[in-house]
Amino acid sequence: MASSLKAIKRQHITHRFFLATALTIATVSLVGIVFTLVKATGAATILMSLTISEPPTVSAKPAVSVHGGGSPASLVAYLVNPPSPKAEPEPTVETNLSSLDLSVDLTTSTGDSFNLGTVAIENQTDVPQLRDSRPAFSGNVGIPKAFLFIELHSDPASRVTVSLNADEDGFWSWRPSQPITTGPHTFYLTVFDPDGDTKLGQSGFQFEILSNEVDAASGLVDQTAGLGQPRRTTDIPDSLLDQRQVLFDVRVELLGEGEIKEINPGDQVLAKVTLFNIGAPGQLVDAAVTYSLVNYDTDQVIFHQSETIAVATQTSFLKTFDTRPTLAKGNYYLEVLVAYKDTEASAFEHFLIGGQSVITLPGNNKVDVSFAFQLLMVILTVAIFFTYFEYKQVESLGKKIHQVTEDDLRREGMIS
């Protein structure tokens, strides 16, 4: 009896240890599931209440300066070392367009389209008038990877510049991220070689944004009135590029593999941003830099942030954007805008959000959210069953220990 009682006690202790282990595993699994859900959705409770706060799907870290790696194509070489008239004669706009086979289309959200690639701004007779405050500009320059410089002059004296590269087929497109003001506007497109060293041609035209005020009689906005009206003004602002008045240039490059970068929901978007102080090289100035992450399919701005960067001549820095695993899949673009004095310079880069949602663990290790959740659920389920089994074993052995009577102990000689 004594030996069997001791064996029962040893089993009781062993199963209690297994029970504690199973409970620990179940608790850790449950915490892991909660952690995964919090990382995936970003949901957080406030003072343990049922109120759920929904954080933004993207957050950003402060810019970190980087060095080396070479400079991207920009206007610096062209503007700092302008070619002599003999080395680069200024051809007429018509000659440029003919040699480049340049096309420029202005398209509105209502489907109106204007082909202005062959228009010489000096001889433009009809000015497109539209009510879409964010029209799309696109076209083809016939040169793969050509460096393009866009200028948008508005009234009053507001000037926006954009630097970008055409794709492998020479195609390009741009749409303002913010609405354009009502009134007349002038658009310039200047084409350079892929390195930005040699100017190859230029196209320009004027257009007008009409007011969207509701007609008092009909109660509706006429979406088509005034399209293609004769020009009513002869005031044509000069190109900043031609006048050597470009103050800033900016380039943005998303880090990663492939022509179009694909980012998993929950992963980081890494962007190398390079700023060029062209207006006052060598003089340290503070420029306001704004970052916008935009869903290309819905035009929804999912992230917007501004910070001040000091630039003397040229500076490059790394900007990191942390996405949530719940970020919707689709086409996006990052726009970086630099505001200085009365001009704004911007650049943008497209990327895709796709693939499996991931969460980032310490050490920058990525884990598939779905796989992690399913694995933790399996572990939790097994731990719960094991816990229940061990609990029943401990309970049964405990009853056997407590069923030993005083006569049993006296019979075994354990007491007198």
UniProtKB/TrEMBL annotation:
This is Bacterial Ig-like domain-containing protein. It comes from the Bacteria. It comes from Candidatus Buchananbacteria bacterium RIFCSPHIGHO2_01_FULL_44_11. The chain crosses the membrane at residues 371-391. Keywords: Membrane, Transmembrane, Transmembrane helix. The lineage of its organism: Bacteria, Candidatus Buchananiibacteriota.
